[in-house]
Design goal:
Length: 222
C-alpha cells in the first residue's frame, strides 16, 4: 500500500540562514515570517543546525554572555553561536507517520527535509502533518476497499461493508480465516487519514487454534 511521504506535504520554499547571520537578523526573520525556527545551512546547502525561538530566548537570559548586551570579544552572537546541533532532519522519502513520530519524540514543531546528500529541499511542520486527517471519507473508503481488502487480503467484494464518517472507519462482515482479523485492523489503522477503526468483522473458520497446535507438536522433544 502507498503511504504519504514527507515530500508530498513539505513546503519547498524555506527561509534559512547561514552560520554567520547575526543574532538580531535571525530574530527579525522569525518575526517577519511568523516562524518557530529556521535551519542553518553551510556553503553546500547542508543543514548544520537549527535556530529556534527557544534558542534565541535562551541566549538573552542575564549572565549568558559576559556583558549586558551579549557581545563577546568576537562580536555580536551569530546563528552559528546559538543554533541547536546536531540538527534533527527528515528525508523526503520517509513516511508522514515517521516524521510525526520524530516530531513527537523530540518535541519539535518543524523538521528540515533533506535529500540523500543531506542538502535542504524543504520544511515540514506539525500543521502540514495534520493535513492528512483532512482526506475525504470517500478516498479513505476507496483505499480500504481496493488496497486493504482486495489487493492485500484478497477478501471477495461484498464480504465486508465499509463505512467512513469523519475519518472513523466502520467494518461489518466476515473474512474466511480468523488469522486475517488482526492484519485487517492493523492495515486499516495505518491508512493516512484514518482517525479510528470500529470492526464488527467475524471469521468463518478459526485457523489460529490449528496453527498453535501444530507449533506445540513441533516443540515436543519426542
Amino acid at each position: 500500500m502507498k503511504h504519504l511521504k514527507v515530500a508530498d506535504l513539505m513546503t519547498d520554499e524555506v527561509v534559512s540562514v547561514a552560520p554567520g547571520t547575526a543574532f538580531k537578523d535571525v530574530a527579525k526573520l522569525l518575526a517577519q515570517y511568523d516562524l518557530s525556527g529556521v535551519p542553518v545551512l553551510d556553503d553546500e546547502d547542508r543543514v548544520v543546525g537549527v535556530v529556534s525561538q527557544t534558542d534565541l530566548l535562551a541566549h538573552t537570559l542575564p549572565g549568558h554572555y559576559p556583558s549586558e548586551q551579549g557581545i563577546t570579544a568576537a562580536g555580536p552572537p551569530t546563528a552559528g553561536d546559538v543554533m541547536s546541533v546536531p540538527a534533527v532532519t527528515v528525508h523526503a522519502e520517509e513516511t508522514v507517520a515517521d516524521a510525526a513520530r520524530l516530531m513527537t519524540r523530540r518535541s519539535i514543531e518543524r523538521l528540515p527535509v533533506v535529500d540523500v546528500e543531506d542538502r535542504l529541499v524543504g520544511i515540514v511542520t506539525r500543521r502540514d502533518l495534520l493535513r492528512i486527517f483532512l482526506r475525504p471519507d470517500s478516498e479513505i473508503r476507496r483505499r480500504v476497499t481496493d488496497e486493504v481488502l482486495t489487493e492485500v487480503l484478497g477478501v471477495p467484494a461484498g464480504d465486508i461493508d465499509v463505512h467512513v464518517v469523519d475519518g472513523i472507519v466502520t467494518l461489518d462482515g466476515h473474512v474466511e480465516r480468523r488469522s486475517q482479523l488482526p492484519a485487517l485492523l492493523s492495515l486499516v489503522e495505518q491508512l493516512d487519514g484514518v482517525v479510528a477503526v470500529a470492526s464488527r468483522v467475524t471469521a468463518r473458520t478459526d485457523d489460529t487454534s490449528t496453527t498453535h497446535a501444530a507449533g506445540a507438536r513441533h516443540a515436543m522433544p519426542w
